[in-house]
Amino acid sequence: MGMAKLDLGEMSPLKTLLLILMIVVIVGTAGLLFDRLLIREGASRLDLMIASNVLTGCVAGILLLQIIRRERERRALIRERLQIVSEMNHHIRNALQVISFFVSQEQDQHTVEMVRTSVDRIQWALKEVLPGTQEIPRETWPAPSKNVH
């Protein structure tokens, strides 16, 4: 399982369990290897226990830091993408205001209604893509010209 593509929020329960088991195996194996190494070196029981636990803790800490670092990178990428979407949303809404203004100057009521319906659909899509953004309230749209033929 490559750490570069690790996305904890999108992992299935089975993959999450496998990741946990993999970490347990890595940390447990590291602990056993450290124990064997220290026994060969002739360390006392207390020294063996302290050194092995510290070294095993270091391995677990390094794994945890890698996971945290990857998660921070993922969140930064998401924030960057949301910023881009927010900027696009802003530019589209500005363009919609101009369209709404000029369509209100149109004499043909059918054209005015078609454009307003399209603007409503675009605003709905923007609201769904980026919830929490402001809509252009219909009340602020200029009223259509009274000279309808």
List keywords for this structure.
single chain, about 150 residues, mainly alpha, 3 helices, disordered C terminus
Structural class: mainly alpha
Give the N-to-C terminal Cα separation. Answer: 69 Å
What level of helicity do the residues show? over 70%
Radius of gyration: 30 Å
Hey, roughly how much beta strand do the residues contain?
Answer: under 5%
Tell me, rounded to a whole number, the average pLDDT: 77
Unreliable stretches:
140-149
Helix/strand order:
HHH
List the helices and strands and how they pair.
Layout: H1 13-40, H2 45-104, H3 109-129
Helix pairs in contact: 1-2, 2-3
Write a concise synopsis of the structure shown.
The chain has 149 residues and is mostly helical. The protein has helices at 13-40, 45-104, 109-129. α1 (13-40) runs antiparallel to α2 and α2 packs antiparallel against α3.
Report on this model:
The chain has helices at about 15-40, 45-105, 110-130. By secondary structure, it is mostly helical. It has one domain. α1 (about 15-40) runs antiparallel to α2 (about 45-105) and α2 runs antiparallel to α3 (about 110-130). It is rod-shaped.
